[in-house]
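Milestone M4 deliverable, item 7.
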Amino acid sequence: MSESSPGRGAGKAMWIVAWLLGLFLATRFFAQWQDTQRNPNQQPESAAGSGYTEVRLASNGQGHFLASGSINGEAVEFLLDTGATDVAIPAALAERLGLPRGAPISLHTANGTSTGYRTQLSSLQLGDILLSDVRALIAPGMHGEEVLLGMSALKQLEFTQRDGTLLLRQTTTQ
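Output delivered:
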């Protein structure tokens, strides 16, 4: 019968801790990598020139333009949608942002008809582009956390898409 040395149990424990730490770090790394692949515009690239501000966005692997920004100073994630008439906000997110529900409105989506509510955004920011008093709607049928950045915001900007990049330009008055 052999006796194990006193340090052998501690060595096994250290190996287990090292493996667990390695797995934890690898999981964190790949989760961050996956999030960056889904939203490559977590810190949108901005540039300013004489009379304009530009934001350059990269498309994700599915060809969509997701970008981090803010509504009334609170962080949100936008999905640019030129097919949406207004900026559309999921009801749970709108409640968390403290947005007031205005007049009811009938919404016609791919999922059918539902009732939404008008609201007004004091500020909407994407990179260095800042829009004020943007018409929006609260959409109870929307799930998730993504805000559809529709034409009520995009019509205030010039935009050009080329080679997986979207350039948004806000003209400023001198």
